[in-house]
Amino acid sequence: MSPFFKKAIGANNISAEKATEAVRTLLLYIGENPNREGLVDTPDRFCRALLEMTEGYSTNPEEILSTTFESESDEMVLVKNIEFNSLCEHHLLSFAGKAHIAYIPTDGKIVGLSKLARIVDVFSQRLQVQERLTQQVANAINKYLRPQGVAVVFEGVHSCMCVRGVRKQNSTMITSAMHGQFRDSLASRNEFMSLISK
Ligand SMILES: [Zn+2]
């Protein structure tokens, strides 16, 4: 069962009923008939989907990054092509693509690889702009793992650019955030960039 039906009252004391009513109003606003067969359950479905796509608000990144392991080496750890899906806070339309994360451990302190994917989810599943999403992922890793360096790149395709406005289908937005050694050392940054572009 969806979290929407588990809690009839959502954040800010807004009832599920009031939320679905708002979607019905939007359907009327664009000239649709919310009572026709295909649309009857749409307000419910939309609210459930929206809650699912913003689940990240209820997860604390510290919980994900607090379990660490000891490794023998302090070499760069890189995970690339982590899929993400987020919602642009300006249009409530999706933007999606891939994230690449690298860090250089301090005293061999590492996290499980799935934790990096989880941290991408936690910050993606909120209303976002890609620049801030990139910073938040890098800042969280920097704060809780205290590595010698962290590098994060997001490559995203934004529906709000594809389906409305300028309607550019193939533009990819690339954002990056670097800390520590990746910021200070051109060699480390170049190594990261060349590994993710392969
Ligand atoms: Zn947008």
TrEMBL record:
UniProt cross-references to Pfam families, sorted A to Z: GTP_cyclohydroI (PF01227)
Reactions this protein catalyses: GTP + H2O = 7,8-dihydroneopterin 3'-triphosphate + formate + H(+)
Residues in GTP cyclohydrolase I domain copies: 20-196
Molecular-function GO term, any one: GTP binding
Top-level enzyme category: hydrolase
Pathway noted in the entry: Cofactor biosynthesis; 7,8-dihydroneopterin triphosphate biosynthesis; 7,8-dihydroneopterin triphosphate from GTP: step 1/1
A Gene Ontology cellular-component term: cytoplasm
GO BP terms: one-carbon metabolic process; tetrahydrobiopterin biosynthetic process; tetrahydrofolate biosynthetic process
Family annotation (PROSITE patterns): GTP_CYCLOHYDROL_1_1 (PS00859), GTP_CYCLOHYDROL_1_2 (PS00860)
Segments forming a coiled coil: none
Superkingdom of origin organism: Bacteria
Binding site for Zn(2+): C88, H91, C160
Record keywords: GTP-binding, Hydrolase, Metal-binding, Nucleotide-binding, One-carbon metabolism, Zinc
EC number(s) on file: 3.5.4.16
Family that this chain belongs to: Belongs to the GTP cyclohydrolase I family.
HAMAP family in the cross-refs: FolE
Self-association state and partner proteins as the record states: Homopolymer.
Name of the protein in its database record: GTP cyclohydrolase 1
Organism: Silvanigrella paludirubra
Organism lineage string: Bacteria, Pseudomonadati, Bdellovibrionota, Oligoflexia, Silvanigrellales
